[in-house]
Each structure stands twice: as C-alpha cells, then as structure tokens.
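Sequence in, structure out. Go.
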Amino acid sequence: MSDNDTNSGTLSKGRILAWKQCSKRLFLEVYRPELAVEDEQTAYWFAMGREVGRVARSLEPGGVLIGGGGERTVQRSGNEGRGVSPDLSSALEQTRLLLAVPGGPALFEATFQYDDVLIRADMVIPSETGLVLREVKSASRVKDRHLDDCAVQNWVMAGAGYRPDRVELAHVDTSFEYREPDNYEGLLACRDITQLVSVISRDVPDWVRGAKQTLNGPEPTVTPGLQCTDPYDCPFIAHCWQDVPDYPVSSLPDKGRIVDELLARGIEDIRDIPAGALTRPLQQRVRQVTIDGNPFVDPEAGKRLKALPYPRFYLDFETVQFAVPAWLETHPYDQLPFQWSCHIEREPGKLEQADFLDTSGEAPMRGFSEQLLTILGQQGPVFTYSNFERRIIKEQARRFPELEAQLFALLDRLVDLQKIVRQSYYHPAMKGSWSIKAVLPTIAPELDYGQLEEVKDGTGAQMAYKACIASGIGEDRRQQLEKRLREYCRMDTLAMVKVAWYFQGHRQLG
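Output:
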C-alpha cells in the first residue's frame, strides 16, 4: 500500500519497481519529477487503496502506526538511519524498539533499511514462530507485480535482521457482502505467498544493482513501447512520446502481436506499413484511411438508422465503485449506478432532455431504476454507446426482482451506436479509437469535452460523486459538483445524438 518514496539518495520499493518497469522511468522520477503527469485515474485508485488500508488496520486491534498519527508511539534513542530524513530515521528506531518487545503489537508502516533500500511495510505482525509480513492491496486478486512488491520488502527485512517467517498478501474479496453497518470482517482475503516470494527475492539484488547503476549514470535511452503501460501507465508518457509519430502503429485496433512485429522491423508509423502486411480488415481500413487522409463512411449505417422508429432515446449511465462497500447488500467493486442522462427525440430533430442524479448519500439504485423506467416508457429504440448500459440494466434487474420484467424488457430496445460506428466509420484523427470522445471531434467539433469543468470523464464523475456524498461537504460545493455532473452526463447523450444525426445527414439540426 505504501509507495515508500524517500529522498533522491535512497532507493525504495516504489523506485525499484519503477526501474523494473523502465529504467528511464526511475531516472526521471528521481531527477526530473516535474515532467510527471499524474492522471485522475491514478489518484482515484490510490484513494481506494488508502481506504482499504484503513479498514485492514481496523481489523487488527491494538496495532501501532509507526510515525504516530495520534496512535501509540515510542521515543527514539537518537540513532539515525543512513541517508534518510529525521522522520524516517525516527520510524526506523520506533520499529526496532517495538519489535524488541516480546509478544508486541502489530505494526503498521513498519520501517526497515538495508543496502540503501528503505521500505515501509503495510503490516508486520509478531507471531509464535516469528514475524508475518502482510501487504494489503485494494486489488481483487493476487497479481505478479504484487509478488515483486513483497519480494523487495522480504529481502530488505531479511537483510536488516528481521526475516519474515511468513509473507501474506491481503486483497479485497469481491464475494464479501456488506450486511451490517461498519462491519467489514471478511472484506479481505489473505493468501500465503511465502514460497513464491522466497523464489522471487533471489532476483532482488540484481534489481537493486540495476536501479543504482541507473541513478549513477546518464539518462537511459529507451524506445517507447509496451512497457509504458505495463504494469502501470507511466506518468512520463507525455514526455517520452513527444517524438513518437502522429500515427503510431501501437494505435492499430485489435493489435495482437502485429505491433511488436512491426516495431521489430523498424516500422513505427501506420503510414509506413507496407501493403499486405496487415491481414485483419479493420486494420487494413485504418491503414488506408490514415494514408489517404479522408474518412471512411459506410452509407449503410445511415439507412439502418433512418429505418428506426420514433420516439428515440439516447441514454448514458454513470456508476460508482467502492473497494470498501458504502451501502448494505452491496459487494466490493459493484458498479452501482447513481446518474443517468437521456436525450429524447420524439420526431426528427426535436430534442428534450431528462436526467437523474441522487447525491443524498443513500443508495441511489432503486430510484435510478424506477425513474429510468418511467422516462423510457414501453416503445422506441434506446441508443447507448457500448454494451455498458445493457450490463448495468441486467444487474439492476437482479438487484430488484420486482422490477426484473420491466428492466429486461428494455434490453430488446437497446441499440449499440458504438458497434454501428465501428463497422461504418473511421477518421484519421481517431487514431485507432472508437470511443465517443475520439469520434465526436471528427463529427461535431463544436461539442468539446475539454470545455467542461472538473468532470470530463467517467473517473472524474466517480470522484465528484464521492465528494458529493462525503460528510462535511458544504452545500454550495455539493451543488457546484452536481451541476458539473449533470453537464458531463448531458454531453455524453448529446454526443450520441450528433453521431446518429451525422450518419442520417442531419448535421444542420440541433
């Protein structure tokens, strides 16, 4: 859970794992941090991780948070950890003193240093046989990168004289159902990863040497590639991709292994791909359109859309996820709908708009569904952009059996506009994406998501909604965020209208 960042002269778990992803990333994190661009999604997931960490600590009563935070602390003796700040030096000493107490408490953020690598462990729990190192993750399963994370901690603790007897990874159990207020027993599943970590720990010295060599040398030269987003989106993508071609081969759809093969041949730009090198029809279309510079439009899309009856509904949902459930009878990471927008076209070119948004803090799902059924009535196609709304409607039907028949009846009326667009349209500026935000500027440039304030995507909507229902928010701020949420969701459904009209030749309307 901890990022373990320290001063520029000391390695940390986070820095070692950054090096493992890309040596240039580590170099830039230490020497050019101002070039980093952290996106909202990263901040969102970090916030979820902190929330899971707080619950994990609450499930270990009597534990001590190293460094204070209002919990039990001990006095430091004056020993300073080499190359670390006074606060971290104090944490090292506090950890040492508490671990010297037989049968001592669980330690949160226990701090250890070895070979100029400093780590802060989520939990170190004394047991009858030794120490348990427990890493807490907000993920729903154990991933390879989690094992690397724990291997670094295991290696440092062992080197510092505190070899863990057992290594555990606690992750969110998505089968957990929140049944009783403030009772999160069972939220976390603990997996014993001792043997796996023991094997991986043998590689850690090589990682440490590599990271040190990177920091002691010139800036590495690294060609942008798959490592830029695996296992995490690198915060330096914007910097490193400055000189990448306008139409990189990595933006090909349904890419498979073709991107690696093209890059191995020195082909970086879609326009340089030889004829015949691509076998998939959609990739061939993207290549040809990019070379020609003219959009591809299949007139069959317009014919199909014109044949649909009125009234027509253009529908978009916003949902929220909680790693730690907020409402009873929900599970971790359930996608819980809290908002919808619907543009209604009762006759060609005549629009009205309705929406739903509940920021009371109470579970919004029933009101969401009931009002949705009212506004959609019983006839007329319902446009969505992807199958997301279809999935949420099915989940709502399962959640509310008394509404099941009405909600399932909606499914036969849904028309996935994105599927039509993907089959029938491509513009070079879309760069391999058929998301509404990629398509809209090529069809209706007057609608600009960039002009929206605060809430500009789904992650921003979730963050704004969570802020709205948080305790302590002022009424003025809540109303401001409500306005931003409505503007964003309304933009999504108006965008669908514009796309549908484009294919039907109605660009002058609206």
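Check: Confidence is low (pLDDT under 50) at residues 1-6, 69-83. The first strand starts at residue 11 and ends at 12.
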